[in-house]
Amino acid sequence: MGPLAKRSANFGRQRGQRPHGRQVSRPSFTQGLARQALAEFLGSGGLVTVVIGSGIAAERLSHDAGLRLLENALITGAGLVALILAFGPVSGAHFNPVITLADRVFGGVTNRQVAAYLPVQLAGGAVGAVAANLMFDLDAVSISTHHRSSGGLWLSEALATFGLVVLVFGLARAGRAALAPFAVGAYITAAYWWSSSTSFANPMIDAARTLSDTFAGIAPASVPMFVLMQLLGGTVAVAAVHVLYPDVAAVADDVVVPHLG
Amino acid sequence: MGPLAKRSANFGRQRGQRPHGRQVSRPSFTQGLARQALAEFLGSGGLVTVVIGSGIAAERLSHDAGLRLLENALITGAGLVALILAFGPVSGAHFNPVITLADRVFGGVTNRQVAAYLPVQLAGGAVGAVAANLMFDLDAVSISTHHRSSGGLWLSEALATFGLVVLVFGLARAGRAALAPFAVGAYITAAYWWSSSTSFANPMIDAARTLSDTFAGIAPASVPMFVLMQLLGGTVAVAAVHVLYPDVAAVADDVVVPHLG
Amino acid sequence: MGPLAKRSANFGRQRGQRPHGRQVSRPSFTQGLARQALAEFLGSGGLVTVVIGSGIAAERLSHDAGLRLLENALITGAGLVALILAFGPVSGAHFNPVITLADRVFGGVTNRQVAAYLPVQLAGGAVGAVAANLMFDLDAVSISTHHRSSGGLWLSEALATFGLVVLVFGLARAGRAALAPFAVGAYITAAYWWSSSTSFANPMIDAARTLSDTFAGIAPASVPMFVLMQLLGGTVAVAAVHVLYPDVAAVADDVVVPHLG
Amino acid sequence: MGPLAKRSANFGRQRGQRPHGRQVSRPSFTQGLARQALAEFLGSGGLVTVVIGSGIAAERLSHDAGLRLLENALITGAGLVALILAFGPVSGAHFNPVITLADRVFGGVTNRQVAAYLPVQLAGGAVGAVAANLMFDLDAVSISTHHRSSGGLWLSEALATFGLVVLVFGLARAGRAALAPFAVGAYITAAYWWSSSTSFANPMIDAARTLSDTFAGIAPASVPMFVLMQLLGGTVAVAAVHVLYPDVAAVADDVVVPHLG
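Output (structure tokens, whole complex):
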């Protein structure tokens, strides 16, 4: 539960054990994992709904291209604050395969959790795209024709994902995961603008955005390079976190060890 | 006092008892309820004033439809931060019948409190609409002719209310109600944009907005379906909170049990 | 030191006493009062610089009247967050005669402090107006010709000041003065928009804004009624705070008793 | 580590010592300094990328000059929140030679740290400018031709730097450095607007902005006077902090003494 580990530790206690007590039994574990998967599903869906829905509204209501992007960026940031606060204590509020994989490297989640998180993130994102389309009286699904390919865009995705992963795990390792909702919201709002790609920084978002041929969409053919650059940025970030915050045990009162399985 | 329970617990102490002490006497209880009703009245009025007043200003001052909505959304979010901070410690800062009813299901308020909260919320909202109209030199009341009816709008209201209730009670159950002012402010700002209905998510707001034929108004005929979808979204959300946060007792140091009556 | 009392209590300790220790000696008291006056001077000046400076920039750079007001409002809110954080621990960060007078009623400041605060607030505000004018290469002083008089404007000023005073002292009485920078910043940003007067809510601001014939200016002839309505709103608010938060002693661990004189 | 001292104290513990324990050994010190330098490099680079990148995007996407500046200002503020949160616990998150020099005066950093911080800040800023240019498919470096010289601009830089230094060290001396990310983000967003110079307030930023002939650029010939006014404002601010917060030892539980070398 790396990024928001401190709060998700409450889960263990909710299942009847005391801190430092025995492992929870297998049935409880399964229930806990189901609950975490539900949180990742709802949170990923909510994030995609915010991104695509506010993009549709911006495109319909505003004429200035910059104003549209500002609306999309501010609303995504505000939505992230709420979503991470709502679901963080349950699942860690990853909503992003790169975060989940990085958390695996840091030992915050088990292989079993990774296997549960990744598919529900993708499924949630797809449902979120459909929900946004339907709310705005569009077809449930329309494949985006918005091609996004250039060296500048790819560099943007690598740097944006690098920054996101350094931020999330830097906060966790410094024992300040409680600030993650505000930090990530501010970061993503800014990254819409300092990058040329509007900072997807999330393979789940890449996939979900193919399902809406609107402002925030991305053509399927542009997705593989985005994912590749995101994984690259995330990998370098994991190394940077190890260098910057070498000894996580020193703040063990704030960072939680894996508490399930 | 579910959503902001921790702070409203101070009320019990203010009436002369210690935590875990005896029940307060009936006269004190009545005084406390009157104070809570006053807070719900002022807070609901303030919320409606912010929504309608900023809508009138936006319509008068800006030409771009998106900019108008951005102004309305940002100002509503900022206003909510202030209003929940100002009145939360007294009444829990519901300002919304769906929140009050959900709190009743979770055992945070008594039937008597529900009976006091709902009418003062509606009355406060009406006074807030009149105040906004008068500040902008309009007639005290003008019935809105802004019809808002479509499948997309109704889906929006159900989803927006679902998200609001999950957020508010998720925070309370995770022992983080102190963050509610910022979480709810960010959520509503975002929901203006990711939904197609601009996210009323509140039957009190539905009713009050009928009283101003301006930017934020809604025609009375459109209200029933909005209320219905809000109740539907709220009901599903209550179930989701039970699944996501099953054992509230585990965080009993943060979540307050009913302390009056 | 009502509104931000908890932090300003550090001052007493800085002068060599321990909490619950003896009163500070008279020389220390004088030094402390001078320091507080300096903080009120700098903070009031900074607030006026933010309001007038951002107004000039908005008028020069943007064409849409709503966008100008949005810029002015967001920047004033952000500036208030920084100013209250910078000076709150020293003086309580009043920057507003209505707040200082209300704090006197609540017993948070002495008559001697009131006599020091009010003139330095006004002097600071005047210097701030001059600084804004000079930064934008205007004459140091130009008397505003912007008349602001109507029933709607006056109602706005009364309501805006009412809300500000309820918020500030509600936070203090609930033991949450640490949130005042964010609460007041959000409140003022919102009040620019839900009122028709753009919410001056502060006699010091009224006076200082007469000194710049730019976007944020106010003609001297319009000031008296603004001040009157602000005092009216503030007075009703003091009564409301007494009703809403009747027993401040119940949260005595958070609210600080007068610690000087 | 003045400004964010409390958190960087964790570093000492991470190297194997307990609070109040022995000094770390020389090799650990060197490792710590390298880590701090890396944090200052990445943070300064990130800050410049945010400033220049969002400036390029604003210039390309928006027509209204005020909207461009609003985008640039809001995104810089949001970026600062994230950057200070990410790197503050490691290096103190200076990203600004004036802050580092002022911290030296207050005894928060050693001469050796100053000698490491200043060059990596400048190098990071240059790399950040190149990254922004490349992301937007521009030449890696283009010298700015944007001349910025006038009395109003110079006054702006002096006042903006004065305010920044008072804020950062006021927070540290009041034991509230944990709020610095939000305080500094809000401050800089506001200072873009209340000053006529858009508030560079940072010699590292002056230098880096010469490397991009875009919205945020500054011609090299305009830099010396900016630096001079920034140093002047910073110097006066150090004196003001001494007057406003005279006895830092009184809050010694919050403010950290130099912990390395």
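DSSP finds nine helices and no strands in chain D.
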